[in-house]
């Protein structure tokens, strides 16, 4: 199968070479990899230039944006800049982070899943992060059928059906909800172990802490589901502050009547799906 990769990159001089090397080592090579240099101020651009000379599969795009590393809008803006450089002659498209090491069979395996599963919309492996003792351990704070935003692969039909990526915090949750709404399935492969070189959220701006609650409002979760989801997140993170920040973010957004990410009909489907999952987990 043919596939494209878009990599948003902001100040990744410490990790980028390992990521690009792992892309070059794939047993199923991409048609094109767009490297979006998103306002980097370190040696990132020089590294990108080295790899565009090393292989014609890489193409560099420079993007000017805020220097603040905010989850959601910054990375999706950069991704969309890269997307503009691509045609539609692909079977699946990948949004990839610039601080990962992929197993060499990663995209060949992803391709096989798309070929074998007719309605598969989004696919990916699992993220592992290194502990202080050197051990690589699974880092997956959500349900096992969730594909992490760092390694999202979309079939073309699914990507078109969901309208691409939403320019907001929560983009990597609403994409899966909208995929299900449009009749697509999700698949995670626990044999695909991806090394994440920088722990999640380490570079995020401090202002980002209440954006999760805003995202839950924008996805039309409603107050009760937001409360349950925030409690679950707080327990997993062992942080009561994350619960507080989520709820404040939700309430502040509801007061300001910010725009929703989904339609009313999509929101109804999302709430029904969330309640079904909640009842399943508590055995109702």
TrEMBL record:
The keyword Transferase applies. One of its GO terms (molecular function) is transferase activity. CDD domains: Glyco_tranf_GTA_type. It comes from the Bacteria. Keywords: Transferase. The keyword Repeat does not apply. Residues 5-142 form the Glycosyltransferase 2-like domain. InterPro entries: Glyco_trans_2-like, Nucleotide-diphossugar_trans. This is Glycosyl transferase family 2. It comes from Maribacter dokdonensis.
């Amino acid at each position: 199968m043919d596939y494209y990769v878009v990599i948003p990159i902001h100040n990744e001089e410490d990790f980028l070479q390992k990521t690009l090397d792992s892309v070059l080592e794939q047993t199923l090579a991409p048609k094109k990899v767009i490297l979006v240099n998103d306002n980097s101020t370190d040696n990132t651009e020089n590294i990108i230039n080295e790899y565009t000379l090393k292989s014609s599969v890489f193409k560099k795009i420079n993007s000017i944006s805020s220097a603040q590393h905010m989850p959601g809008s910054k990375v999706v803006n950069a991704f969309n800049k890269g997307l503009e450089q691509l045609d539609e002659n692909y079977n699946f498209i990948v949004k990839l982070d610039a601080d990962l090491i992929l197993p060499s069979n990663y995209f060949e395996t992803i391709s096989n899943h798309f070929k074998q599963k007719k309605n598969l919309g989004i696919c990916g492996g699992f993220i592992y992060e290194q502990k202080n003792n050197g051990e690589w351990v699974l880092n997956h704070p959500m349900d096992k059928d969730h594909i992490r935003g760092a390694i999202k692969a979309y079939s073309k039909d699914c990507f078109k059906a969901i309208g691409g990526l939403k320019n907001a915090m929560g983009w990597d949750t609403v994409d899966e909800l909208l995929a299900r709404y449009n009749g697509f399935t999700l698949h995670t492969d626990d044999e695909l172990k991806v090394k994440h070189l920088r722990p999640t959220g380490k570079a995020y701006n401090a202002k980002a802490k209440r954006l999760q609650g805003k995202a839950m409002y924008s996805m039309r979760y409603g107050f009760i589901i937001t409360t349950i989801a925030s409690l679950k997140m707080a327990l997993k993170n062992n942080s009561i502050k994350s619960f507080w920040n989520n709820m404040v973010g939700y309430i502040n957004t509801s007061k300001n009547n910010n725009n929703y990410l989904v339609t009313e009909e999509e929101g109804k489907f999302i709430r029904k799906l969330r309640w079904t999952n909640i009842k399943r987990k508590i055995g109702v």
